[in-house]
Amino acid sequence: MYPLEYIEPVFRPPSEWKSLILQVTNGCSWNRCTFCDMYTNDNKKFRPKKLEQIEQELIQIKQSSLPVHRVFLADGDAMMLPFNRLKDILLLIRQYFPDVGRISSYCLPRNLNNKTVEQLSQLKGLGLSLMYVGCESGDDEVLELIEKGETFDSSLQALNKIKQAGMKSSVMILNGLGGPEYSKQHAINSAKLMNAAQPDYLSTLVVSFPLGEQRFAENFNGKFRQLSQNELFAEMALLLKALELNKTIFRSDHASNYLVLKGVLGKDKERLVNQIDMALNHPDAVHLRKEWQRGL
């Protein structure tokens, strides 16, 4: 555990569990997505952290003699910072921890509107090499219903910028996000977005509402309900069958998923689809998480 005082709660991707979580912003500047309750606390109002404070924290960690091999820039919206501020933060990380192998961050597609490919390439040269992009869906109608503030085109533009800059992208799609009414178009258009973007990593988790679904369901005019286990499997099968990816590492192993799926798309596509078919038709023959084992 690194000796830092965080503004709680702090979230990070599962793969960053060994990383130094460097809180360079607090909260999320958008914070309107109806499915997300991550930054709704009063103490999570969006605010960039002063560069001087970030440097003091890096000095504090340096003095602790704890190893730092990877750094994750928190909170949920660090990439909204201007290019020059991000550059200064990366220079500080390199100054105090020159051997850091990877720096990463969450990234909303809109975060890249004011950053050129050349600027992103400079950030990549300073160590920022992986962007976690919560696309959630590739369907414009679903994106509007959840108040994401993004579209198929804006997400694709951002993912292409990341690729052109030499960075890697890890994309999240939310299984069950459109409920039964929008399930088919959500799956098919999400696959179309991924096929166009060819991300390095793709993962899915099941949309859930630990604080209740009332705020989310309001935009669906009372027609939303969460998908059943079999409906989630059917939507996942539709997504996978429509995916035409070349060498994307795929993970559907988050704690919210009933069925753990892992592979590389496309070489493992047939195997993964068969696993879902088994879960649908012979659930006793596969390992499925129990309800009490699932969560965020």
Could you describe the 3D structure shown?
Helices cover 34% and strands 18% of the residues. By secondary structure, the protein is of the alpha/beta class. It has a single domain, classed as Alpha-Beta Horseshoe (pyruvate-formate lyase- activating enzyme). An 8-stranded mixed β-sheet has the order 1-4-5-6-7-8-9-10. Strands 2-3 form a two-stranded antiparallel ribbon. Helix 2 links the parallel strand 4 and strand 5. Helix 2 runs parallel beside helix 3, helix 5 packs parallel to helix 6 and helix 8 packs antiparallel against helix 9. The longest helix has 15 residues. It is globular and about 55 Å long.
Ends distance: 21 Å
What would you give as the CATH superfamily?
tm_1862 like domain
**Fraction of helical residues:** 25-40%
Low-pLDDT runs: none
> Taking all residues together, what is the mean pLDDT?
92
